[in-house]
Amino acid sequence: MEDISSKDLNELKKYLEDLGEKPFRAKQIYKWLHQSLATDFSQMTDLSKALREKLLKEAYITVPEPVDIQISKEDGTRKYLFRLPDDSLVESVLMKYRFGWSVCISSQVGCRMGCAFCASGMDGLLRGLTPGEMLGQIEAIQRDVFTDGIPKPDSEEYLRNRISHVVVMGTGEPLDNYDNLLIFIRMLTDENGLHISQRNLTVSTCGIVPRIKELAEKNLEITLALSLHAPTQEKRRKLMPVANKYDISDAVGAMKYYQEKTGRRVTFEYSLIKGVNDTDEDARELSELLWRGAHINLIPVNPVKERTFTAPTRAAAMDFQRKLEKFGINATIRREMGQDIDGACGQLRRRHLER
Ligand code: SAH
Fold first, then answer.
1. pTM of the model
2. Ligand 1 pocket, CB under 6 A
3. pLDDT tens for residues 237-267?
4. Which residue has its alpha carbon closest to ligand 1 atom 17?
5. Would you call 91 a catalytic residue per the annotation?
């Protein structure tokens, strides 16, 4: 069976030609799948019955099935647990901001990066997600947000409730699933589908250096974020095994290269852990590692059941921020959403914890 949900428009054209169909059918089907959010071939009423039946026999639509939705009492953030066609489970998060709806998706089932403070990698990696499974998380959530069925693409209701921002910051390392990530980006931004602007997409990586450089050559306008979490190689190695493979200075250098090559400002993520990476010395070393004007997101570390890391107090985090600012680094403290439902950074998993 063909995974029709993972084909970008060009691939879909080729596929339909192989089936002996006219290539213009591809755009129709693509729109049904990724704009009208169809879950079944029988909904595609402008295709001939014969073609619908052929597709039903030859291909399948990837529809992540929501098996649980938790809603935060603090901020309304929703965490979805999805079952995929092979029964694997992934989590995604929906957040409401002033600028609109934003979705955080997973890129893999589990993760093999093994960061010390993160729950997502604790069961290891099962597999990378297909492009259709990455996109499917957003589409399933979009169906849920449109409570009265899918409105017409240009209607007021559509514009009011469309998901406009996506971050690839859930479970998994996106650059460890590189080829599928690139197809996903193409499909996400296609005007015949969800049509989300590249500028509204952020991809976060733990720092797979050669892939960052490759990505820089692709002429994309997406925002790239590096999970840094320590100011020196020595400290970073203790928290992030990936540092054993790629030195911190090479990771930061690759980010600088990405910024110069694409003209897009990169960001750095830094989970503040009390007594581990939040001292005055850390702030000073961090400012030496980065450049003036660099942008860093400080995230007071979120609790993970199996770990003892704790976050600094709000006052200490603000103090750390001020120190960085004094050195010419733009630092913001990120408002963590959905903590009470384990929906915040580093709290997503591929299995369901007992509640
Ligand atoms: N693998 C990618 C994508 C995961 S993004 C990456 O490493 O960037 C998730 C972000 O949350 C990363 O910056 C990650 O380092 C951070 N994170 C993980 N565990 C966390 C925790 N317990 N508290 C706060 N942030 C955490």
1. 0.96
2. 113, 115, 117-118, 169, 173, 204-206, 227, 269, 271, 299, 301-302, 304, 345-346
3. 999 999 999 999 999 999 999 999 999 999 9
4. 346
5. yes
